[in-house]
Design goal:
The protein has 486 residues and is of the alpha+beta class. Among the domains are: 39 residues; 295 residues, no CATH class. 23% of the residues lie in helices and 33% in strands. The strands form five sheets. Strands 6, 11, 12, 13, 14, 15, 16, 17, 18 and 19 form a ten-stranded mixed beta sheet that branches. It has a three-stranded antiparallel beta sheet with strand order 3-4-5, with no helix packed on it. Helix 6 runs antiparallel to helix 8. The longest helix is centred in the C-terminal third of the chain and has 28 residues.
Length: 486
Amino acid sequence: MAISNDKNGMNRCPKCGATDVSLNQKTGKLRCNFCRAEFEGKKVNTDGGIDTLKGDIVGDGASDIVPGDDIILTLKCPACGAEVVINTEEVTSAKCHWCRHVLSINEKMPNGAVPDMVLPFKLEKAKAQANIDEFVKKRQFFAHPQFKKEFTTENIMGVYLPYMVVDANTHASLSGEAEHQTRSYTVGSGNSQRRMYDADVYDVMREFDLLVDDLTIEASADKLNQNTLINTNNVISAVMPFDTENCEDWNPGLLRGYASEKRDTNIEALKPAVDLQIGDMARYRARESMKFYDRGVKWTNEKLDVKGRRWRAAYLPVWLYSYLEVKDGKKLLHYVAVNARTGETMGSVPIYKTKLMIVSAIIEMIGIFLGTRWILYWLGVDMDDDNPFWLGLLAYTPGFIFYWVMTSRYRNMGARHKHEQETKTEVRNLKQSDVKRESRKRLSSSRIAGENGNTVRGTLSSSSNQKMLGEKLAKGLGIDQMLGKN
């Protein structure tokens, strides 16, 4: 069944020609609200041609934002001539109050409100509510009492968030050294006993074309800031990837019934993060041919030549629950997010730190007691190699470990989109060189010194202006309070 598309991105019903069209979430099809006919939306062709990209190819919806564009627009209905006012910060379409014809701002208007493509909601609200409820119920014991009292999934929102979807034609060159273990053995005796390693050292090189298909990155300045000490945006990023191959051409009818956030970031601001993420993908794909090197690799020279990129702005669907925690005049907005296509769920739950610190302190005191008993026993009775001294010292740490594990479980500060693994990539024209250079003896570490083959540099939290140093991290987690620091 053919679909009639207006130049402004509207879909007309192929049966009656009406533009009052919305998404039927149960079937995934568009439905005419006049004659009730259902039909497929026009899919975006997001595949192919990546190896021919040169320079930056920018979609209409991804073009630079013009700061002077009006937020409040008056649209003239082409059907009856009535004038309708639309606020582009809140909506990108409106219905004529006389003839019900659906009006939309022009798809080429460069104000960040209109993307090139939209991925429709697939997961129903009831399922998203169940996912969020299950996620929160697993984190009840240390959840803040006020949060538990106020928590309800009734107010979750379906939101279209702005993203950039990027294809890239690149060439990667990496060279360095890698180690393969040849022997592992123990030297010394008594307290001086230690493990040593022998290894063969190779000069290694990997060079290949890397085609990146639909790398997805946030296009909102607010969501790009993923400093987990001051926000929980990282949990929204963690519900990726989306099945962007199923995106449809821009159609405001798909947004009906959902909120949407306006893009406020241009591609020049996104290029550094995108190129870092592509570099992560290059190192990840290079590892596939490096399995022989069980002690790891240290790349000393890395070069990424980006031949071309294709940029498209997209609205991608997320179910969001939010809760504002206010403590000592400071505010932290917690999110629980659900990917409205796959159901992937991630979130942050406010922690009742007083309760967590009390329980951690009890565990720590038990550990100190047992550790002290062990050390006294070792010193007075059983000073031998079979019962090492360090086991007693290890017993002094369980409270701190427990605090860290619970904080990680409730806040999910380490959650992120694993772009290096989850983005579709293709390696072509692989060239490799592996030349043995020397053998090393009596190495004290089980890994190569300076290993960086698994390094990820393109995480949005690490590109934040506020670096998460040890002191800031301890303060953010409340560990400084446990240590009696201000």
